Amino acid sequence: MAKLADTALDQLFTKARTRNGWSDRPIPEPVLRELYDLVKFGPTAANTTPARFVFLQSPEAKARLAALSSGSNGPKILQAPVTVIIGYDLDFPETLDRLFPNAPGAKHWFGDPVAKEVAALRNSSLQGGYFILAARALGLDVGPMSGFDNAAVDKEFFAGTNIKSNFIASIGYGTEENLFPRNPRLAFEEATKIL
User: Which of 50, 101, 107, 145 is the most buried (most CB within 10 A)?
Assistant: First the structure.
């Protein structure tokens, strides 16, 4: 593989920003499908793919989520063309015979409920990171958030399932509204070791 061009790296990382303000430009359903079709190729442990994505596009659906958010997140959810609940399905082992056929019986690896939840949370978080990069690759801006009542969101959007919310992310075409200066990052020497 070749290194991506600097313009691509800028779009994905160095010039990409967490957006707080949004234009009213809609995101058509084919773009949401294209977004998922990129995300699904990100690797997860044993191809568990526990993430589940609920795209809230209607004003009514966004209002239901905004009412369960904290601080300034409510207005961001309402303004964005789409806000996505990224959850994790604790029933993910049931799909492993199909998704990880090279290891028959892999679903039994996750018999311990605590280990299963850790695996689901970890791998859905990984998929959430792919989601952010895939959205940026498609020219969308992203505003990930964690300020909401997880238990209330689970009751409101995942009742009757074994799915739990992980985090949320607004997506669309961002504006400069409420765009804060980029915060510092840790230097290589502070965050890494080479052994």
Answer: 50
